[in-house]
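The authors assume throughout that readers already know how a fold can be written as discrete tokens. For illustration, here is how one protein appears when written out as sequence plus structure tokens.
>
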Amino acid sequence: MNLKELSDFIRKNLAACIVSLLIFGAFGAFLVQQYIVLYEKKNELDQQVKAFYNESLIKQEEFLKREKEVYKQELSIESEKETYAKKVLELDNLKIKYEKLNAELNESARVSSVEMRRQIAEEKLNSLMSEFSATGANLRTTPECNDKEGWKQYNIARAKLSEAISFARANGLYEDYEGFFDANSSFMMSTC
């Protein structure tokens, strides 16, 4: 085809070509417009999906933070429980030691108290025996019937020895001093 034939063809079909071009142009414009609307809707949907994922990610991060805090709290609570259990065990051990020491102290105090009472009783008994000895009377021989001073000393000595014997028996010391009591006791009855 040459240029003249082309130009004749165009003149004959110009109206049809223009109408075709207008129809195809309008259809093309409609397609482009629909494509733009769809593209905008796609972008809007992509933004919504992105916002959803971002929001989901933020919530997941918050959840993970909370979970991490809860885990830390659980570890802290477990640590505190272990510390508390150790302290309770230490307190129990201290309580046992205290009770043992208290029992030993009570026993020691009891023994010491018994020893102290015995020592005080021995001192008092020695004092009574000294008072008896200080009278200078011999209970194995009775004074003459008319010796009033001798009888007075004899009765005082007898009373002191009797008091010493009673005191010794009351405090569990009689066996320890039985020799002294036997040596100084009177076997005779006075006939005056």
